[in-house]
Request: fold
Amino acid sequence: MEKTTSVKETRQIIKDWKKQGLSIGFVPTMGFLHEGHQSLIQRSVSENDRAVVSIFVNPMQFGPTEDLATYPRDKARDLFICESCDADLVFLPETSELYPAGFCTFADMTVLTTELCGKTRPNHFRGVCTIVNKLFNIITPDRAYFGRKDAQQLAVITRMALDFNTDIEIIGCEIIRESDGLAKSSRNNYLSPDERKAACVLSRSLQAGRVLLESGEKDPRVLIAAIKDIISNEPLASIDYVEIVKADSIQKVDRIEDPVLVAIAVYIGKTRLIDNFVFHV
Ligand code: AMP
Reply:
């Protein structure tokens, strides 16, 4: 497994692979890898001749009061995980490598970023689109893998690739969960033992929502109220949002029609966690 920190050396490796006609899969991450990331890397390894992972905590996608400074980092462990998944190249740039002095060009998006995390994290998706666009230009993969845990991000990247005529297949991968249902996340590391138990309320409330949908409920207000009710009963939880939107356009719906994304963001103590599911009527 090769490791690079500069754009130049990364490009050289990619160029050599392309000369040999090898296909390239790419998994962008912010590190502190867990089984969710591993599932993406393993899929990329299995579907491509070469698999690239990037590890970069992107300052541009964090708000001024968010957790950029405390975001968990463990480079040695991340490299071990990448190696054990058979990744071929890990790109670990410094911030100055990707945002040198004078940087002033951004990729921004409307419509898909007006609801959910776009509403409560202004500029988050501007940061995501900008970094993903940059990484796509550096790695130039055939395929790129994103988790459905960040469902809005997956929709945004899919739309960006379409709008910018990016010749990369965007592949969504299933959410990997703990045995009690909590979606794996690097931010779960922030939770105290009590908070960790309380965090189950995210998947539990969504499961109750799914049951309601399966029983034929078509009114999003009824569903949102039922999910909010369960979360409100957990003393350590406070709701950022509970929303039901069209899965592709991420716009609110008046009636539940195929397919919808049921998405929530909940603070457990000071830790903000997200979860979701897509429902096909
Ligand atoms: P992050 O390091 O949090 O930026 O995540 C990197 C990629 O891993 C993103 O595409 C995430 O959606 C994906 N990911 C994170 N957690 C999970 C999970 N529990 N299951 C599947 N994919 C995940």
Observations:
- The chain is about 40% helix and 20% strand.
